[in-house]
Amino acid sequence: MEILVASGIGVLTMVGLYLVLSRHAFPVIIGTTFLSYAVNLFLFVMGRLEIDKAPIITKGVTDYADPLPQALVLTAIVISFGMTALVVVLALRGFLETGTERVEKGEPQRDARKRKAAQP
Amino acid sequence: MSHLIVAPIILPAVVAAFLVLVLRHDLTSQRIVSMASTLVLLAITIWLYVSAAEGAPTPYLLGEWRAPFGIVLVLDRLAATMLLLTALLAVAVLIYAIAGWDHRGQHFHPLFQFQLMGLNGAFLTGDVFNLFVFFEVMLIASYGLMLHGGGARRLRTGFHYIAINLVGSTLFLFAVGLIYAVTGTLNMADLAARVAQIAPGDEAILRVGALLLLLVFALKAALVPLQWWLPSAYAAAPGPVAALFMMMTKVGAYSIVRVYTVVFGADAGALADIAAPWVVPAALATLALGAVGVLASPTLLGMVCFSIVWSMGSLLLALGLFDPVGLSAGLYYLLHSTLSGAALFLLADLVAAQRGRLADRLVPAPRLPHADLLAGLFFVAAIAMTGMPPLSGFLGKLLILDATWRSPLAVTSWVILLGSSLLVIVGFARAGSTLFWKIADRPAEPAEPARSIALPVTVIAGLLGATALLSVFAGPISRELAATAQQTLDIKAYVRAVNPADLALSRGAPQ
């Protein structure tokens, strides 16, 4: 089971990094989302993968799953959700303002010129 | 213990919520409340500094949960120094912003207060995950502030800025996860004990986590090769916001010092001083690249941004030695570079506003209104930033040279620091000549409606005056900072204060 979870996290991270290096805003946003998924899973398994252990304090039980990574991951989920919402709004606003969602500098001028030239 | 330790976090948070919920439509009231709150914060941080100077680090247990089970804030000399510097800078920046910048967009004052909350929290917390949370508070506020005033350029650069910080936050969480996996704790004082006893089999994972964390802090501190985001982000930010952002790179430097002395310091066993081989070479590279950037920049703001990168190289060259002399020198330079950098950002903003469409491009322009005054301020600010006598930059640089003298990289450090200083001096001299001495022979184009610059000039002069005071009172200040450096490196005292021995004894052997 460990190798499967580790591989899954690795693939998510790899896909996220690839997308983050894109030239367009939308893949960058999706890439950061994948990275968030990867790190959430990563934090969750940092308390070790366990079966047949109690999650909450129970009478007569001495073996417990580690609850702290679950608390950490909840915090991370909330923060990354808020960040993703912000960056989506920013990308939309940027698109409306500049007419392009490409992230490099300098491109908007050329694109704008092409668009003006193409107009009848 | 006094509840004033938590006040630098709670006060801005409450005021920010109040401003956005109750006073959102009344800018005048927002200004009054924001200014009053920041002044109260300054008073609180002065009190905290005085009380921190008296003795051992003071823990503050949130919710009365003992460390390592609860989140703990720790007030010591280093944290108090950073809090005081933040409050001083905040007062200056807020006065400048009230002169006009704050009505060019929504919610400047609430975001400003949230920014202070994040900064103060980062300096006070004694928990690595809580440090992550305060980093995020600080960053979220910085996104809003950076985009204040809008415009296509800001939106584009803002997207870059947010994307790079999202990746940085992800790396932070990966690092935190690795450290927790092998130590079972994220409290810094508890980590100090656990790291020293790490099992050989877990050493590699912990090493990866430690270096990943260093990567995160280096990104925040704009160390080469992670500095490329800073020039464009700070150049696009509004002037007062960029001045406040001077404090954010200092958070990165502070985090490096705190984590790699307390947790991975001299007492950390197999991972002792794990950051030391990396920070100084990276700082030297940062110095070189920052200086080249200063020469290459076609705009005043770009030049100021690269000089910030350069000054971070100087700062981390001293801090990266991880010894009392280097730490003391670094702290003195930190005070200086924060004040002079903020003054330069505000001045660049003021000059750009006077020059119409030319803004801050380094080309001759018709004679500026208030040219003599601005030229004088620029001259003083350039002296401060480049580190020439008689201002505190020179003393700071001298202290750094002295601190690096005994290190293995002494010759390299001296050559790069002095050589890059020459390049920065040339860059600023050329910019000053172009902006203020060369006059284009054509009528002045209409700039923004003429507005009094008395208040902005007063703020800039105040910041530069502070660097002069740093120079005049260098002796007493250096002694204070030497004591701060000693306390910061006294890891046992820190651990003992936060994690009492009786608690440690009551816990079994590490599992």
From TrEMBL, chain A:
GO CC terms, sorted: plasma membrane
Record-linked InterPro entries: CPA3_antiporter_subunitC, NUOK/Mnh_C1-like
TM segment ranges: 6-21, 28-51, 71-92
Main subcellular localisation: membrane
Membrane topology: Multi-pass membrane protein
Location in the cell: Cell membrane
Lineage: superkingdom: Bacteria
UniProt keywords, alphabetically: Cell membrane, Membrane, Transmembrane, Transmembrane helix, Ubiquinone
Similarity comment: family membership: Belongs to the CPA3 antiporters (TC 2.A.63) subunit C family.
Protein name per Swiss-Prot or TrEMBL: NADH-ubiquinone oxidoreductase, chain 4L
Species this protein is from: Rhodopseudomonas palustris (strain HaA2)
Lineage, opening ranks: Bacteria, Pseudomonadati, Pseudomonadota, Alphaproteobacteria, Hyphomicrobiales
Automatic annotation (TrEMBL), chain B:
Pfam families tied to this protein: Proton_antipo_M
GO terms, molecular function: NADH dehydrogenase (ubiquinone) activity; oxidoreductase activity
Subcellular location: Cell membrane; Membrane
Domain NADH:quinone oxidoreductase/Mrp antiporter transmembrane, residue spans: 126-415
Record-level GO cellular component terms: plasma membrane
Keyword Transcription: no
EC identifiers of the protein: 1.6.99.5
Alphabetical keyword list: Cell membrane, Membrane, Oxidoreductase, Transmembrane, Transmembrane helix
Main subcellular location: membrane
InterPro entries according to UniProt: CPA3_Na-H_Antiporter_D (IPR050586), NADH_UbQ_OxRdtase (IPR003918), ND/Mrp_TM (IPR001750)
GO biological process, one term: ATP synthesis coupled electron transport
Its membrane topology: Multi-pass membrane protein
Record-annotated membrane-spanning stretches: 6-23, 32-50, 78-101, 122-146, 158-183, 204-222, 278-296, 303-322, 334-352, 373-391, 411-432, 453-474
Family stated for the protein in its record: Belongs to the CPA3 antiporters (TC 2.A.63) subunit D family.
Entries under NCBIfam families matching the protein: PRK12666.1 (NF009309)
Name listed for the protein in its UniProt record: NADH dehydrogenase (Quinone)
Higher taxonomy: Bacteria, Pseudomonadati, Pseudomonadota, Alphaproteobacteria, Hyphomicrobiales
